[in-house]
Amino acid sequence: MTDAKIIHVDFKNRCKVSAVSSSSLLNEDVLRASGFDDRTIANVMTLAAPVPTKTTVFDTYDHYKGSSYEDTKNLSCKDIAKLIRVQLKKFSGFKFGITTDYNHIRVRITAMPANTALYNPEWVAFNKANPHEHNTLERYSADVARTLADIEALVSEYNKIDSDKFTDYYAPKFYGNVSVDYEFTKSRQSERD
Predict the structure, then answer these.
(1) Residue-range definition of the domain harbouring residue 14
(2) Residue 35 counted as domain residue
């Protein structure tokens, strides 16, 4: 670094007060002897203080590989759906519909035990009290929400996702969708009324 000069100008009196070389910046006594006031010395000391550097590594890629991906990576969506259908049998009392196409697997809950509430009672109460307001509460009951989350986890076990946020690149093995069947929700409409 070259030896720069710091010049303090007293703007009130419009005159140059003093100058000091940058090699003596960190010495307050030299600055004080050169005629700098305490405020200017504090500013110079702040500006001359070493700035800690922090290295930030931006990983723009999102990588996800499900636990069963390696064993099933050469299977089609239709074959993966068959494997998922077998594993869905562990959800006793629930029935599911699974549809596939080239790169999409959709799992829908089509039936559940009659004693299992479909909707969250708080969500229903809010909708009744505020029919024109946006409801941010969880729509489904805790049992149904937990089942949906478990099914999503099950479906994602067979998936692999590579993406890059900066280039808007998104490449899953397949797109998965887990939901409650619309026709089934219509049959349980009485819970909402």
Answers:
(1) 5-48
(2) yes
Place of tokens 């670094």: 1
Evaluate whether residue 31 is within a structural domain: yes
Whole-model pTM over 0.85: no
CA distances from 58 to 62, 164, 170 (A): 11, 11, 17
The Cα 143–Cα 141 span in angstroms is 5
Look at residue 115 in the predicted model and tell me its pLDDT. Answer: 92
Q: Tell me the three state secondary structure of residue 106.
A: strand
Find how far residue 93's CA is from the centre of its chain. 33
Do residues 20 and 5 make contact, with C-beta atoms less than 8 angstroms apart? yes
Burial of 52 (0-12, 13-18, 19+ CB in 10 A): exposed
Residues 99 and 157 placed together within one structural domain of the fold: yes
User: Which tens digits make up the pLDDT trace of 32-63?
Assistant: 777 777 877 777 666 666 655 555 555 556 77
Report DSSP letters for 54-81, one per residue.
Answer: -------EEEEE-TTHHHHTTS-HHHHH
Note whether residue 138 is domain-resident: yes
pLDDT of 110-123, one tens digit each? 999 999 999 999 99
**Which residues, other chains included, contact 91 with Cβ-Cβ below 8 Å and sequence gap of 6+?**
147, 150, 151
Nearest alpha-carbon partner for 180 in 108, 99, 88, 91: 108
Non-local (6+) Cβ contacts of 20 within 8 A are: 5, 6, 30, 31, 34, 36
